[in-house]
Amino acid sequence: MDRADLVVVANRLPVDRVVDTDGTETWRRSPGGLVTALEQVMAKTDGAWVGWGGKADLDIEPFDFEGTLLVPVPLSAEDLKYYYEGFSNGTIWPLYHDVIAAPVYRRSWWDAYVRVNRRFAEAAAEVADQEGFVWVQDYQLQLVPQMLRELRPDLTIGYFHHIPFPAYGLYSQLPWRRQVLEGLLGADVLGFQRVADAGNFQRSVRRIFKYPTRANEIEVPAGDGGSRSVIAAPFPISIDAQAFIELSQRPDIRARAVEIREQLGNPKKILLGVDRLDYTKGIRHRLKAFGELLDDGAVTVGEVALVQIASPSRPGVEAYQDLRDEIELTVGRINGDYDTMHHTAIRYLHQGFPREEMVALYLAADVMLITALRDGMNLVAKEYVAVRTDNRGVLVLSEFAGAADELTTALLVNPHDIDGMKDLILRAINMPEAEQSRRMRAMRRKVLENDVEAWGRSFMKAVDAVRNKRATGAPI
Ligand code: G6P
Q: What's the gap in Å between 12 CA and the centre of ligand 1?
């Protein structure tokens, strides 16, 4: 097998399997944010990507896809149940999102997490070139940095954490809190979304291991009696803003935006929510606020419509099944009370859409509602801002989304405060154009400056600093 100087390790490969009409199977680049984010970093070198192929028991040889070597890691149905649905999405996901749902601690899930993380580490160790760089992604693979360091001490290892890292008071619930920190500390550079996430991580390391920390550096004892320093710092992720702007200028997509408004019966204002169907996203709180505004007569059907895209997610996890039932019950009740033959209160779509349709929706939306109870970043916020080239439109953004650190001129909302959220939604609906423009302009500047390329560059700069120190024999 060819070896690669840059290896990305992520739970999923950057491709989806598609079956053509004649039954042949091919691969198509997946539309996700992570893929776009890393695409530009990968394009500069002969890279490899280690990840799961998206189907249980898929055991195929590494293959080339558009210049990147894809290395599939097979996962059995049981691995998926215990490692993916279990430990990753039933334990870590709710714990790291401030226990919005109750985390479940099961020893069999942990065992599977260890076993599967080792499989990913072994695959990466096999494909990485001598003294190459391996970049591990996200919470499903927190043990990989340490496992990989043991297998291949010559490598430089990065890790990026796409979701929040919780305060010690919550993190300390985890029965395997030491092992997870040890796993992460195997990296040379650890990236987090927000200053607060990096801070929470450092505090956990201090509390549990008493390792000294200085600014972004943690001194970790090395086997030889010396120590090595690990960088733990914020690198807020972003989007390919230019690509979104280009889509927003396409005549067919602009025409589609007009058509969407017509199809909704030409309401004066369109409110939009776009989320994976996840309990972290605050969809229930948003629906509650909107439902009450209808009850109060503060908004009326026909004048205002809410479009809620809820893309299907993790259907095998019980908390997601319960959430879907709850949301669909609420939507059904509100629509039942307020719909007319011509208009709907909430156009609810439990579907995923291609990027073109998303951009058309962003262009059609007068108000974008992001009311997450906790969110690592929330790239939808940045996508909405990027496409609003006329500086119109209002972003209502949760304080608890990482994006709120940068998009400070959004209407910032505490989604737990339903009255506060109702007031803000009304303010967004009625905001004068001059104010919309002032707020949007400042946000667009941030997103265009700090795009995904800048994100990749700044992370790689930290990695190169480690590599240079190593090459010159300086202590790291
Ligand atoms: C979040 C996580 C990603 C994950 C994505 C989709 O954004 O940070 O790691 O890939 O959700 O979730 P899924 O479970 O379908 O991969």
A: 9
